[in-house]
Amino acid sequence: MRNLLRKGRVIPLFAMLALLLMGCGDPTLSALMPQGEVANKQYSLMVLSLAIMIFVLLVVFIIYVFVLIKFRRRKGDDTIPEQVEGNHLLEILWTAIPILLLIILAVPTVMQTFDLSAKDKPKKGELALKVTGHQYWWEFEYPKEEIITSQELVLPVNTKVHVELSSADVIHSFWIPSLAGKTDTNPGDGSKNYMWIETGKKEQIYKGKCAELCGASHALMDFKVKVVSKEKYKAWVDSFKNASGNATGNAAEGQKIFKKNCMSCHAVGKNGGNTGPNLTGFGDKQRVAGVLEHNKANLEKWIKNPQKVKPGNNMPNVPLNDEEVDAVADYLLSLKLQ
């Protein structure tokens, strides 16, 4: 290994690995592929800061190489180069230039920080949204539409969304990398944060995450953002409001079991508790518990042992036998909006 390092043969290998890794990642979970106004503004700040850092790095390298060559020790030459200590012009330059670069970066950063965290009332055509972080799931409330849902956030295209953020337990951080940077959700009535996002001009599903360490299942606190056409959004709102939750067959038996054991925490439509996720439209979701592939086997796995899927979450182990779990799973999968 030492011989390889000495000969420099391993450097091209690392260079190729770095190049390959640059192509990895999810385009719906990347701040480097911005969608919408907020993401573009934040991306511009990243480009500006990177440009300043590269500029400083290049200047330092150029000066370093210049000094290394010009003032290198030569055979037979023991003269000491002219010393520049105390040179007023140089000291002013290397003090003033960093200050100037900091001002160039600080001014747009401060301006955008206040702009993107502004608490504004939605205007016509804009949307109000309340986001609440829980261990380990997300609750989304649409005040005007009188809808409360969880884990999958549905938004119309080309719309400004005013977001009010809070937490039901500990500090979380709401982050949709492709649409907006992270903002903390703090516990307590007087600790609300505010932000706004722009959904972009195309239908797309984005991935969101909790960006603040909040417990054992922090890494599993994911959610989806479904940006749909305004017509589809209106249809979704109407379907959600009119969802009845009525079921037939084995699902009907599961509905009875669900009402007896689960509705103290969960709600379907406007009926039920509010300490757990609202399960209206559960059959249309893409993930079970936000992390498992959406199918009956995974749903039964979640119902039987939620702590194994998401350690530390607040859902208890409900004492149901296999037949009851099967019926409840059928009922939940039948909860479709369309």
Automatic annotation (TrEMBL):
Keyword hit for Chloroplast: no
Q: Which terms under GO biological process does the entry name?
A: ATP synthesis coupled electron transport
Q: Which PROSITE patterns match?
A: COX2 (PS00078), COX2_CUA (PS50857), COX2_TM (PS50999), CYTC (PS51007), PROKAR_LIPOPROTEIN (PS51257)
This molecule's function is given as:
Subunits I and II form the functional core of the enzyme complex. Electrons originating in cytochrome c are transferred via heme a and Cu(A) to the binuclear center formed by heme a3 and Cu(B).
Instruction: Give the transmembrane ranges.
Output: 46-69, 89-111
Q: What is this protein called?
A: Cytochrome c oxidase subunit 2
Any idea where the Cytochrome oxidase subunit II transmembrane region profile domain is? 23-120
- Read off the lineage from the record: Bacteria, Bacillati, Bacillota, Bacilli, Bacillales
Q: Which reaction does it catalyse?
A: 4 Fe(II)-[cytochrome c] + O2 + 8 H(+)(in) = 4 Fe(III)-[cytochrome c] + 2 H2O + 4 H(+)(out)
